[in-house]
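Data card: per-record layout.
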Amino acid sequence: MAKRKPDEPPKGAPAWQSTFADLMNLLLCFFVMLFSMSTVDAQKFEQLAASFNQTFSIFTAGATAIGDGILISNGVSQLNELDNYINSTGRDAEGDMIPEDLESAVELMEEAKIKESEELAEKIEEVLEERNLDKEVDIEFTSQYVQLTLNGALLFDSGSVVIKEDALPLMGQLGVILQRFSEGTIEIEGHTDNKPMSGAKYSNNDELSSGRALSVFYYLEENTLLDMSKVKHSGRGEYLPIADNSTEEGRAKNRRVEIKIYNALSSY
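The structure for this 268-residue chain is written out next.
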């Protein structure tokens, strides 16, 4: 028997809490207004500021840190300098530490990602060469992933999403490679040329590319031990060509399946 899913509790704060918060805001505004209308003894205020400086090390020297007469005459206008103070502590506005050289840190991280992808690509390329598959699979990489590109004609007949029988050994080898080298997300993308569909099961290239990516996904699900929760599939249709669609050779290159293996340092 199916079990009922527990109802989610009401979202948001209780009604009384919102009313209380509004009341506190009104009281705060009231006291700020009273303060702005009041007359402050400048000498006593400087003594108070100096006391805070000794206790909390916030101000550099009484009224000098605030600006002579600025806080007294303009109320909370000195809060415009709050960002400067926060930055001077080595933290950003959210309280997180700011690296001394943020740009260098980003560059070092990008270099580490590139190196990770390059090493992964070299390992996969070595395996492909050992198994004489290097001419059937193109390898590229970015800082995020290693991409394996398969010509669509190797895997599918025209207008079909069924993997051809003679392509199954290639798919089996790719499955072994993915099991061996993938640590994170795998993304399968189907691509087509811009030639309109006619007389086929699928009415347009978007459906055809999605069906082909899904066929590869199903093959991996049935024939490998991959964690399929980390495998994505999508159809990109004709919208990301890698060659000129005005020639038959270009259209053949655009009919392809791409498998992206994201590296361990990827932010994906």
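Known properties of this structure: The two ends are 39 Å apart (CA to CA). The mean pLDDT is 81.

See the next section for split statistics.
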